[in-house]
Amino acid sequence: MIAGSRDSLLIRSDDAGATWRLLPFPRGTPGVFNSVLIHPMESGHFYAGLDAGDSPDSGVWESTDGGDHWRVLAGTRGSRIESLAISPANAEVIAAGTSKGVFLSADAGATWKRISSETDVEMQDITALAFDPVDTHTLYAGTPHLPWKTTDGGATWRSISTGLVDDSDIFSIRVDPSHPQLVFASACSGIYRSDSAGAAWVKIHGIPGTHRRTHIISEDPRSSDTIFAGTTLGLFKSPDGGKTWRHLSSEQVNWMVFDPADPRTLYLATEYAGILKSTDSGETFRSVNAGFANHRLSQITSDGKQLYASSTYEGLYGGVFVSNDGGLEWSLRANEEALLGRNLHSLTASPDGSAVVFGASEDAILKSADGGKTWSTLPAPRVAPRNGQPAANTGRNRIHALRAVSVSSVSKNKLVLFAGTDAGLFRSSNLGTTWEQVKAAGLTGIPVLAMDAPLNGASYLAARTSSALFISVDEGRTWQAAMLPDASYYLYDLALPADRDAAILAATSRGLLRSNDEGAHWKLVTEGVPAATVDSVRFTPGPEPPAQKLPGQKPEAFLVQYGVVYRSVDGGESWARFSNDELRDAAVRILWFAPDLPRRMFALTAARGTLVFDLPQAEAANQGDHAVISKQ
Predict the structure, then answer these.
(1) Which of 137, 149, 342, 565 is deepest in the core (most CB within 10 A)?
(2) Kind and range of the H or E element at 470?
(3) What local confidence, expressed as pLDDT, does residue 632 receive?
């Protein structure tokens, strides 16, 4: 099997979905594979339709060696591909639905011609294609404005919309392979059946009225009366031609395929759950995603014993994940239901190994005392009333960031929580039971969007607003503004060193900034790295305690710029590109290190989950910039 997803990713399985491997597709402009096909006569011959916007990478890509090498077919280069179809009567005949109309190849993709009018505005976006099973000249095309049909190879087209709700988006078309007069179409307005090859349509009723879209309609290969509908609200099944329906799964379905050797086995391509498999005609499903990382992680944190990661808006298949082996293997610990219906955009753990974890959604702070299994809400930070009067801001105090740090308290460390909210920065010394507002000039009452701290300890703390940066060098008791050079430097990330003698690094929209005086002055770094947007910057964990630092040793740092990783061994003064094949074009967004895993780097990507690397030992850090991948 072959599957396509966002970020120009293609994956292949040779064992019925048990495991998957990423295919070496040439990385260019990130795009979406809207359609993938396997040649019916050649199992290693693939076609993949890529929509990469206006980039020349858009087009129909072909591989004749099982996906090891790819080339874009010349007649389609630059065309945004939305659908593909191979004629069941002649595998040499291929149709491509593009943003510019319908293109046809009669020689397996070697040459192409447009078979829809270039000036016909009704046939510019071709969202679905289906051939007649015996006639290569008959082709159905779905558009954002009803379906169309040609019976002469595209010389003429006619609208086939009788019985359809006007202006329906057509998502899929299915022609019965044994009875070509029977055609199904799925649309934003519902599911339709035609017994006259599209001349007239009847809307299939039965699915409860809901706000949903049906992305694909398909018959059971054993019986045309058994219909499956893949929708934004899950999979529905009808055993009687659409008269009655049962809801089989709740995950948004983008596509489905049946095993040609065993039609009881079907696979679903879903929006959030990856790939699901059923061996009993859809009655039950299980995920088959080994080797395919389909989660977009927002944050990772560590309590010294376990790692915790959060993903958002993935329903029952996402939420808080836990790793007990340093990030090599992960398991879902709490989904959206366990998180009380919330999505955690910020996650932080007590660093003492106590399995206490805190998370923030937009409207609440949550706490888990059992390593992320169960969660409860904490009192939200509120502005204290003045002179007995109610607080001025009576609306919801939206929470943007949460950070747990250990601060010195006489003879031992004490856990302190900081919360960045619309009403300013708040602090709690009792695990979130009560909150006090941080009072500082320019910071009080201003929305705080992010919090930063070193990996080890709280020698520095930083709070970011939409237009300013504030630094604390006394564990959050007092704060000073650290103004960037001017307002055109938008701040994306901050690297705070454990050693206050080292520089602070700031990832901004105009490049990397470096400060040697706790943010009072900044210098744009250009040695080895372009003066352009930097998405993320991190120091590797320093020696603990800092007294173990070698004389003259400067902290090692990494940054991400346009998905490319750079490395510095002199505290951020100069940089070199960090060479690693697994990082190449992986669309890295964020870098992260765990305090207790100083030589393991985590690279959060746009669509490949997290890549985990073991770096060379610190004492050999200057001898090379290679890395060894441990696990994806």
Answers:
(1) 565
(2) strand 469-472
(3) 41
